[in-house]
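Crash report, auto-generated. Payload:
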Amino acid sequence: MELLTIGQVAERSGMAASALRYYEAQGLITASRTAGGARRFPRSVLRRLAFIRAAQNVGLALPEIREALAALPDGRTPSARDWARLSEAWRARLDEQIAALVQLRDGLSSCIGCGCLSLTRCRLSNPADVAAGEGAGARWLSPALRRVPPASNAG
Amino acid sequence: MELLTIGQVAERSGMAASALRYYEAQGLITASRTAGGARRFPRSVLRRLAFIRAAQNVGLALPEIREALAALPDGRTPSARDWARLSEAWRARLDEQIAALVQLRDGLSSCIGCGCLSLTRCRLSNPADVAAGEGAGARWLSPALRRVPPASNAG
DNA sequence: CCTTGACTTCAAGTTGACTTGAGGCCGGAC
DNA sequence: GTCCGGCCTCAAGTCAACTTGAAGTCAAGG
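Recovered output after restart:
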């Protein structure tokens, strides 16, 4: 069994067939076709899909994942060497997300019982000081942490 | 200046006026009306909005936030006592999200250079062992961490 | 031959939290 | 009186990552 049908890939990867078609349409994976037009995937697609899911878990959007995959020569499945390079960037992302959440939690702890919730001072309603800097950046921040703070008035 | 216009609340809270109308429609905030039909907000709406944003940052959906607010007698703005009770639950949420991310990061570290990305063994593409148990639960998990693992075949 | 099941395409629907646009009202300044 | 900014409502659009549905093709089995 050299090539896999979409159903087989769906079963082995745990992804829906519709998702696989979508990924192909988005250029994340590729497939050859039978004479009848049915997709045939190489086994390597499974590793590619694992890579995609891992990247999603780190918080990357599909276009970013596509770029990461496209940056590999010949559009090949990531090797150990590629993997090491990419995962370094991912770890930084995760570290920052973790830091943001920890700061949120600590702000919460420091707020317990005070009931302050100041619009500008309370860290809970204003977690943006984590890697804020300008304001337009911070794209790495998970959606849940991207709530913008108020302009700068008292609350 | 006893009551605030929607524009003033928008400026002070940093939220768009359209968002405030939306929140009112969703029952998260309330406003009185002028003879002409314009909204007038009490100052307490600012604290309520801070509460809402904090809850969003913790990862709550608007319906959950509405319930949390509605659980307060008279639909009042949370007092220090209410706040302490609610924030306990939130902290648990955050703790679990942090744990999930840390596990993801550690899985990443342990993967660097190995290039394994096994569909079933690699923690990076399969972070579900964090608070998994059954599979239908884990609702607290941030959307980014909710990717399901493959059924249970080799990769 | 005819059915069955897996596959195909393409368009449209889903979810959450809003934003945008059209069309209109209201109150104060000129 | 009329002009403007700010407000109103309601319907529809946005985004991401898919899913769902309709209508059709293909290969194998009875």
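Post-recovery validation: Helices of chain A lie at 6-13, 17-25, 44-58, 62-70, 80-111.
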